[in-house]
Amino acid sequence: MAHLLLRSRASTPCWGMRSSATFAVTRSLPTIWQRQRPQQLRWSSHSPLGSSADPSRKKVTITGLRSLYKKGEPIAVMTAHDFPSAHVADAAGMDIILVGDSLAMVALGMEDTSEVTVEDMLLHCRSVARATRGAFTVGDLPMGSYEVSPEQALETAIKFVKYGRVQGIKIEGGKEMAPTIEKITKAGIPVLAHIGLTPQRQNALGGFRVQGKTSKGALRVLEDALAVQEAGCFAMVMEAVPAGVASIITQKLSVPTIGIGAGNGCSGQVLVQVDMSGNFPPGRFIPKFVKQYGNVWAESLRAIETYREEVKTRQYPAPEHTYPISKEELEAFARDVEKV
Questions:
Q1: Domain 9-294 in CATH: superfamily?
Q2: Which of the ends of the chain has fewer CB neighbours closer than 10 A, N or C?
Q3: Of the residues 147, 239, 299, 320, which is catalytic?
Q4: Whole-number mean pLDDT of the chain?
């Protein structure tokens, strides 16, 4: 999911060892983990972080999402692009984790979403799937992998489920994509539609522009929404649409709308994790609809700068970070060294 309005080349983000131990080291865990499960032991940096799922939490399914919608409970959606970002999103209780094609910029440093390939997306989908135990996972079909024909789209969707290990897929487009959505859903693959601003088509739209700002424009968005609903999507992302328009459209539908820059009247919300967590350097353009809930960049920078300083001044590693050897063995080794 790309950003609203123009993004200059200069503002495009470019994001950019120990041997296995024979004993476990118990570390203090953040409060959210303590609430969710007993403390885990982790052998070394070679070991995965483990499952983040709350044992008491049911796995989110299509049926569960429908239940949330019927109860009027907003659906919380968050993007993730790798194992750590999915791990924290799942631990935080997201209903849906979207492996968005925005990873082209936030994870791979590309200029826009048109560069990312199916192979790129599958790699990131697999990484996200390994960390996700509670949320429903959706993979974003990249530009060029579904537009040629419904058959091409179905083949790509099957790859995402079979090799990307996601539970559903997302495709951009309105009524012109209805036959494609119908083809995929009839094959048993859940589809998250995407209407309003469709970033993969930014060149045809004249850039990242708000959609539905006139009565005629709003009617086109409604027509798209009704068409993708009729085609069988389980929900639809509605991006960069005036709040009043999005609210009226949501009320006309019988499937959830997931808003991004579409106001509080949608059935749920989605944000790009890098944006909302503040994991980017100062000066980067942020769309109007983004609320920054943290400053991960500043905290990471502080930690890494402190590490560098401690390395330069030999404060790190301290004795508590090293493995011991008995005095006798060390003295024996020193004597043996003299013989070499």
A1: Phosphoenolpyruvate-binding domains (3.20.20.60)
A2: C
A3: 239
A4: 88
